[in-house]
Protein 1
Amino acid sequence: MKVRSNRLDGLGTTIFAEMSALALRTDSINLGQGFPDTDGPDSIIDVAVEALRSGRNQYPPGLGIPELRDAIVAHQSRWYGLELDPATEVVVTTGATEAIAGALLGLVDPGDEVIVLEPYYDSYVAMIQMAGGIRRPVTLRPGGTARGQAGLRPRGTDFRLPIEELRAAVSPRTTTILLNTPHNPTGAVLTEDELRAVAAVAIEHDLVVISDEVYEHLTFDVPHIPIATLPGMRERTLTISSGGKSFSFTGWKIGWATGPAELVAATMGAKQFLSYVSGAPFQPAIATALGSDADYFDAFRAGMQTQRDQLCDGLARLGFDVFVPDGTYFATTDIRPLGHEDGMEFCRSLPELAGVVAIPHQVFYDDISAGRSLVRWAFCKRPEVIAEALTRLERLTRV
Ligand SMILES: Cc1ncc(COP(=O)(O)O)c(C=O)c1O
């Protein structure tokens, strides 16, 4: 009996599942998986409860309820000046994960090459493979070997986009660039110059851009620029985001993709056979959340920035080389100053050594040498949890 398909070869279990299970088993603090340990606003939960109680429990429309599509359109207009048609240019998905899956299955044919920033979010690799595509990684690297002041590296110098390497990665079989900004796991936020360079490549070679912007509301002192706002890009970009990340309801799995009708239709074409429709009672709640006033977004960002600084300062004090992120809720460290070389070994032993879980970067690379000694830590956790994790991590410096 054959129980495995070639499409799944080499994919194994996602590192997030492995490390979250390890955290539970060892009663460790989970700074691995990127989910907040506080829920989003009660007022938004109330909308979901009301939807449950008022009978919004059957299949909603495949594209998403009109109320949510309108709210997504209003959000893109309000924050970025992007005007969309809610009837044809928006699809609601089961998290950004399904938007990524639908886009890649709907837009990539077997043998097509997809350029992807490395380290990459692991579902990109899985879905490119399931679509029969070929990934062409372009690697974001640390800027140098020098440790910054007090262990914190100088801002904006690491994990920049190597534009020449991006140009060189294009071949006659390239059809798609899969972008991610703010970038998981490095926390880099692509600058306008970098995005313009990507846009120039996409336009010159007539490529589709799929832009994963789930951390759009989590940038710290730098702007988030959707590539769809650059000249010539709206018509070739599918932008993906998620209510889970912006409103701290990751378990609701409400995401979306927006862009030109043909890209949305291709995504929908695959989505209808993946989930068919997505979380009916959560859709009105996310629609309300998207209309939140600026205070909500400011407070959300400010709280996360405080936690970022708490974690980064603490890790630097312990001796790690810390890459302070400009966006997302992840910080990266190099573990070599503490005498470790291999991030995977380090993360597998960390629960026993210190009762903390983190994620090794190396699982997000084709060539693991580029990220062997890098480890990702999530700071979307309450300050007291981060403080306790840092206290536990002091054990590392005593061995
Ligand atoms: C870059 C990136 N894209 C997509 C997702 C998945 O988002 P969702 O939970 O909405 O499926 C994540 C979640 O961690 C992510 O980091």
Protein 2
Amino acid sequence: MAAAKKRKTPEARIYDTFIVGAGISGLCAAIKMKKEGYHDFKIIEKATRVGGTWRENTYPGCGCDVPSSLYSFSFALSSKWSHLFARQPEILSYLEEVSEDFGINELIEFGTELEHAEWDESRHLWVLDTNKGQTLARTVVFATGPITEAQIPSLPGLDSFKGEMFHSAKWNHDYDLTGKRVAVIGTGASAIQFVPQIQPKVKELHVFQRTAPWVLPKPDMDLGDTSKQLINKLPIIQKSWRKAVATSLNVINFGLRNPAALKPVSTAAKQLLRVQVKDKTLRKAVTPDFTLGCKRILFANNYYPALQADNANLIPHGLVEVEGNTVIAANGERHEVDVIIWGTGFEVSHPPIGRKVIDANGDRLSDLWKDTSPEAYLGATMKDVPNAFLVLGPNVLVYDSFIGLAEAQLDYIIDGLKKVKQKGITRFAIKPPVLKAHNDKVQKHLKTTVFNSGGCKSYYLDQNGRNFAAWPWSLKELKRRLSDFNVGDYEVVYQSAEKKKAA
Ligand SMILES: Cc1cc2nc3c(=O)[nH]c(=O)nc-3n(C[C@H](O)[C@H](O)[C@H](O)COP(=O)(O)OP(=O)(O)OC[C@H]3O[C@@H](n4cnc5c(N)ncnc54)[C@H](O)[C@@H]3O)c2cc1C
């Protein structure tokens, strides 16, 4: 049992709902609640700006791998995108504009971090401690993000490194890479975006690759002023494009659930590699040895050319040790470098919000998740965590825009909030048998998907090899399941029963 934090004098003000985080999910929650006529909510954000992921990740080349027509809110399509796939600064501006246009900015309490959230069983309230004081709320929406915690491996000798060192998610823009000897660790989604940007300016670029990713050509395009004006005048273009992108992602998703269907794509991708990478040794080193789709498919046109530049050196092994300023690969290859850039991704199987939340039994979620990853019902509600929702929680990941997933989940959450209010429910918690049956089915169906059977170790799998991230069916099915908050799935306490008990 976690030691309960000493409570301060409670604020008189009790909110209906408390939203934590003002990234895409938190903004979407606030917009949808406002639209439904809910005004009794508070939204906090620990940073001083909205944007979440797109505020934090500013590395060179950072951008979206889903076309912007789809990576945008369904209720706020934009005609301003400069490319088919938007870059980070544009996505951040878009989110700031949406927040302003929908009147959310003024509702956000910036610079406010949730430090401790504890369920008070006697009052059916959440007691929420922030760096600015205490708030009480009947319900909470944790929109604190699925991919936030930069992961840096602890390696022997790392302490002895005297050069510069930073993670892609905390890019040091004050450090000039010009003429420097650079080690990039990792070849995931962020690395393949920043490697081509830094390669032309550095003296030496050593890229440590543990697993060769599938990198397909990115069908990107500059959208000039004429296209933007046309899209602005004829929004139907944007809508049709959005539909077309969604349809093609559905096809990819079908392949991920039925790996044999993606065989022609991987054959074509390997043929393309022959054209793109002339050197046979390098080509062999960058050819993936797992089924396409097992790890997130990456898209780039400039990654392989960057690796073939004279100053670039792909090391098809992980970094295992550091000795002073010398980085040492698993095959013993050694290089003296001035800077290490970690493109090692994020710790996603244990969301940091777990360290702040105490459930109805007095247990800290991170303690419960110590030996496993979290489970939730439809990625949203957790066992013994009453009156609370997660956005983009476990097992809702579909190869699509996260914005679409967040919107679908928030439709479920807001339907739930509405029903709870209408029915006078003061406490609701997912029924353990419902949660178990759901997750057993999810895990059973994941077995045949490429994520579990494709022969890779991806971030979808936790330390025990359990897939905590993916949804095994179609996006349509996820949306169908999220279209109705079935009160029957929850153990509930009604206000009338409470009153009777008190009398
Ligand atoms: C580099 C990178 C590239 C990506 N590219 C894509 C892509 O191409 N396509 C795609 O679909 N998805 C992509 N994603 C996934 C991306 O995370 C989601 O698309 C989306 O931005 C998630 O939004 P969110 O609001 O749920 O979380 P976040 O954007 O992480 O926002 C969470 C917010 O909560 C705040 N917060 C957290 N804890 C607290 C606390 N205790 N108190 C107060 N505030 C708190 C944070 O400061 C943050 O602002 C990418 C992720 C990364 C890291």
